[in-house]
Amino acid sequence: MKTPLLAFNEKGIYCAQADVYLDPWKPVKKAIISHGHADHARWGHQKYITHNSNVPIIKHRLGDIEVSGKEWNETFTINGVKFSLHPAGHIIGSSQIRVEYKGEVWVFTGDYKTEDDGVAVPYEPVKCHTFITECTFGLPAFKWTPQEHVMRDINTWWQQNKDDGKTSVLFGYSLGKAQRLLKHLDTSIGSIYTHGAIENMTEVLRPQVDFPETTRITKETKKEEIKGNIVLAPPSAHGSTWIRKMVPYVTASASGWMTFRGARRRRAIDKGFVLSDHCDWQGLLEAIKETGCEKVICTHGYTDIFSRFLREQGYDARTEDTQYEGETGQLESENEKESA
């Protein structure tokens, strides 16, 4: 039986011919990293390879690591296997990893979305024979509203809260979602304040993106100066003592999971905005079609349902277990859960 170009084992997605792993979840000698979220970029590998724009992100999160950066579409060869990185559109620096050997091409998406968010380099389809796709939102119930409409609703919500004399506290992951929200907030309404974890990551990314001005909330920040403005905070800040400084406040969360009202209730959030850095159902199907692939491997998310649907459409589709967690796996690492 022919050995597959990429195989799933206890450490991650392995290319035996090149002796390299893609987004491994256990320490390995050499790892190609798709993006900076904690479930894909883990500490402990001897050597990291990633896109240049992701280098400062993983250095910030992982510390003193040996990492080399690549440009988009730059081919690098390891033991005869050709690798290249292509925009995934998920967050800043997120890549699809193309692997080619003896005319056979596989593409590993990591996490991706097909909508251009105005921050990350937009997703580009890559032709391949086998496509490894996430299925975080692989159900027909997930259908995203265009970002322009969602951000208009968020800015309207902020303005209404300001008119009511309340502070708007908007929760989003410190890497990716927070910067996407920040980029499109209407600063004519007021000022933007940030939790320390979000401010730290935004400072890392400012050399790459023109973001609006933000103010870090510290112990010296007065409640009166925040009132009526908007605060960007990670989900971990909800229910913490840190948030008491915002009283009176109204909370909201920006996430694909806000599709379900029950998710908002469970998180005790006042308002939910459906905004995801992953593909919706239709986005997944369109992305797969554009690759021209014959085989699809479904990972993390609604894998069984999605792969069954793909088989009904004529694809050779199956599932594989990973330790990626999609939108539930983007919570801040411990050293970013700051109180200020």
Automatic annotation (TrEMBL):
Region (Disordered): 319-340
GO molecular function, one term: ligase activity
Domain of life of the source: Bacteria
Enzyme class: hydrolase
Family annotation (SUPFAM superfamilies): Metallo-hydrolase/oxidoreductase
Keywords: Exonuclease, Hydrolase, Ligase, Nuclease
EC number: 3.1.-.-
Protein name: Ligase-associated DNA damage response exonuclease
